Amino acid sequence: MSNSTAADLSFENACNYSGDDLQVLVSTNYSGTGDPNGATWVSLTATWSAGSWAWVNSGVIDLSGYLQSGVRIAFKYTGSASDGKTWELDDITING
């Protein structure tokens, strides 16, 4: 993205069951290998499915603040032994 003047992310998502929403995160200091907990991650705002496998578009997520090399995007799932939504993602697109 370092050669771009603007960038954005979008994706389709659907879920079912109860539990936490996914998170979409961005990092400029994660190498892509090893423990990602040692990096700094910033949470990005997305529109998430309300459930019942209803597909929803995330909306256009602005990445203009990350126009540099080494940018990593992550989806973080949180669940437990007793609950956790099941998620599906599709049509993940980065324009830049």
Strand content: 35-45%
Instruction: Please trace the helix and strand order, writing H or E for each element.
Output: EEEEEEE
The profile of the biggest β sheet is: 4 strands, antiparallel
Oligomer: single chain
* Discrete helix count: 0
User: What is the C-alpha radius of gyration, as a whole number of Å?
Assistant: 14 Å
Helix/strand structural class: mainly beta
Number of strands: 7
Low-confidence stretches: none
Mean pLDDT: 95
Question: What is the domain total for the residues?
Answer: 1
- Amino-to-carboxy terminus distance: 6 Å
Principal-axis shape: flat
**Helical content band:** under 10%
Description:
With 96 residues, the chain is mainly beta. The chain has one domain (8-79). The chain is built from no helices and seven strands. The chain has strands at residues 8-16, 23-27, 42-44, 56-57, 61-62, 72-76, 86-95. Strands 1, 4, 5 and 7 form a four-stranded antiparallel β-sheet that branches. Strands 3-2-6 form a three-stranded antiparallel β-sheet, with no helix packed on it. The N and C termini lie close together (6 Å). The mean pLDDT is 95.
Question: How would you describe this structure in keywords?
Answer:
mainly beta; 96 residues; three-stranded antiparallel β-sheet; single chain; flat
Structure summarized in a few sentences:
0% of the residues lie in helices and 38% in strands. It has 96 residues and is mainly β.
